[in-house]
Amino acid sequence: MFSALEWCLLVAIGLTAGVSSGVFGIGGGILVVPALVFLLHFPMPRAIGTSLAVLLPPVGAAAVWSYYRASMVDVRAAAVLAAMLFVGAWFGAQWVQRMDSHLLKVLFGVFLMAIGGYTIYSARA
């Protein structure tokens, strides 16, 4: 059972992730996973599973429809990526279930720093 504060945090996390997904085209997991771990004290594997469970339907349906209507979706590329994402996500989920939670946190942090560094570096070019 969640407290009133935890419910408010979940609402704020969801809204923030949704807006960032629509604006930046990023998976909300970049925000949802750290927020669940640090604000709501979820174990890392549970945060990842929860993030995956909630992000696909709302983000996928709303954002994809909007971008598709604006002719901003390459359907062929999206189909290939979706198929490979499905396969990769299954393997990734199997791997995470066997991984130490602390190592997973470290790897996630390194991943976020690499993306941030690349984004900053490429913005200068």
Automatic annotation (TrEMBL):
Membrane topology: Multi-pass membrane protein
Presence of keyword Cell membrane: yes
GO cellular component, one term: plasma membrane
Domain of life of the source: Bacteria
TM helices/strands, residue ranges: 7-40, 46-68, 75-96, 102-121
Compartmental location: Cell membrane; Membrane
Record has Zinc as a keyword: no
Keyword entries, A-Z: Cell membrane, Membrane, Transmembrane, Transmembrane helix
Family: Belongs to the 4-toluene sulfonate uptake permease (TSUP) (TC 2.A.102) family.
Protein name: Probable membrane transporter protein
Taxonomic source organism: Paludibacterium purpuratum
